Prior knowledge:
Number of helices: 0
Radius of gyration: 24 Å
Number of strands: 4
Oligomer: single chain
Strand order of the largest sheet: 1-2
Amino acid sequence: MSVETIHCARCRALLFRATAGAIAGPVEIKCRRCGTFNVLRPSEPSRERPERPSSGDPGCPSNAGPSGRPRSSSATRSTS
């Protein structure tokens, strides 16, 4: 694995060294030399699954009943 060196955007001081892909989310680092806040984001997109649409969305296929029509939100099931 390759090691990346991360420098301050303002004064080019070394902030840290890390292996490629080590940052999983946004990171904010203050430079010890000039005091600039450097915001770093991962270079690769996250591997998390995108969120599903909310179940209240009428256009959502998972909200449709067997007939293909949206289910009634006022319908209740009775357990007898």
